[in-house]
Amino acid sequence: MKGTDGLLAARLAAGDELALAEAFDQFGSAVYHAALRVLRNETAAQDIVQDVFVELWCRPDRYDPALGTLPAYLIVIARNRAVDMVRSELRRVARQDRSGRLEAEEASPSPAEEVIASHVAAAVRAAVQLLPDSQRRIVELAYFGGLTFKEAAKVAGIPEGTAKSRIRLALAKLEDELDASLLESS
Amino acid sequence: MTAAGSDQVLPLGLRERVLAASLRARAAGRAEPAAPEISPAEAFSRAADAFDGTLGLLDGRQWQVPALRGLDVQGLVGHLTGVEEDVHRGLAGDPEVAAADHVASTQPAADRQAGCSPAQTRAEWRRAADRTVDLVRGADLRAVVAVHGIQVPLGLLLVVRAFELWVHDNDIRAAVALPPAVPDASTLTLMTGAAVGLLPFAVARAGLTDPLRLHLVLTGPGGGTWDLAVGQGPSAPAAVAIVTDAVGFCRLAGNRVTPAGLDPHVTGDQDRATAVLAAVATLALD
Description:
The complex is a heterodimer.
Chain A: H1 4-13, H2 17-39, H3 42-58, H4 70-99, H5 111-129, H6 133-144, H7 149-156, H8 160-185
Helix pairs in contact in A: 1-2, 2-3, 2-4, 3-4, 4-5, 5-8, 6-7, 6-8, 7-8
Chain B: E1 2-4, E2 9-11, H1 14-25, H2 40-55, E3 66-68, E4 71-72, H3 73-91, H4 95-98, H5 107-111, H6 118-136, E5 144-147, E6 150-153, H7 154-175, H8 185-205, E7 212-219, E8 224-230, E9 238-245, H9 246-253, H10 259-262, E10 265-268, H11 270-281
Parallel strand pairs in B: 7-9
Antiparallel strand pairs in B: 1-2, 3-4, 5-6, 7-8, 9-10
Helix pairs in contact in B: 2-6, 2-7, 3-6, 7-8, 8-9, 8-11
């Protein structure tokens, strides 16, 4: 038979619900803590865990055992989803700053969402302040200033490609910083 | 609030929540990605096309290579022509063919290939297979057909026939050193479903009467998961889980591989699992 991960993935593809339970029992904790490291919020991390395992169950063919282990695959998905959530929150905070209001602009979030958002927003704001000046400037223009990459590059007086490159570097550092800040606090 | 395992800490209820959400999004049992559904008649037609495709690969010398039960390739194709002719008679309700022996009844068709060219043999078989396709077009797939000692709904008969064509396709391929053929996922789905559906019958016929809860997982295209209760009796049922690939399981049901040759992943009583798989081989869907 295939290796352990390959066998588990094949069973998932065959609709074996016992394999799903086994996958959760083996990797659920790692996935949860990967999400928690980025988000620093239990409720949001649980949502990520659910998303990750629903995707594994519904699209088991997306996992290729030849490319890595199953836990590594699941943790990467969890981290990506968590970072997406942070980025989304980054944009939301930026919109609020632009409008000069503390309240949300659109549909009113639930109290639980407010709590999650405030945790993430605080972490994001702190992380942005630790970026090198050149990167922080372009992030503030693009996200907090609401400018397009092209407009932000023009204001910063740098080529658009350089602006995009700095934003990519900045977002990578934000992810690392958010991880590190949790590790320090835990 | 959290639930603590040794060094694993997860929020209470998260496991149940995640499993429930997953099973709401996709029901257990069916393979993913799911193969497009086809009718049993289409499965038979595809198997016939695949078999014809293999015949088209053979040179004249290869038609004379020994293939099965003392038949060369040409004789085996003749046997299949005889099967088609008996199925035609079965569809017409002929009582003689209902009880006829599968091999003995078709031996004259195999014998008469001597002296025929391969092209003639191939054309005769193709006409007979096409005639089967014509006869079942629009027919009631639930109608019971009796042929060669079995009485089954027409739909199941056509899937069994697809099984037979695939098994003999690979008999010929093995005889002439061609790589084995694998049915498409849609056809394979019907084949695995038919074999699993017949499994309790095979287990009972093999005398495995003690109650057993079987969790059967067939992996790969055409696979799926089944929970079967087989046997009966006062004792508490034993639990066995068998994981193996769908194509291998079909080869087993065609009696072309042994349970050991399958290399299954078994949880529970190994001996019971081996006995169940050996019973599957007795289905001999060839």
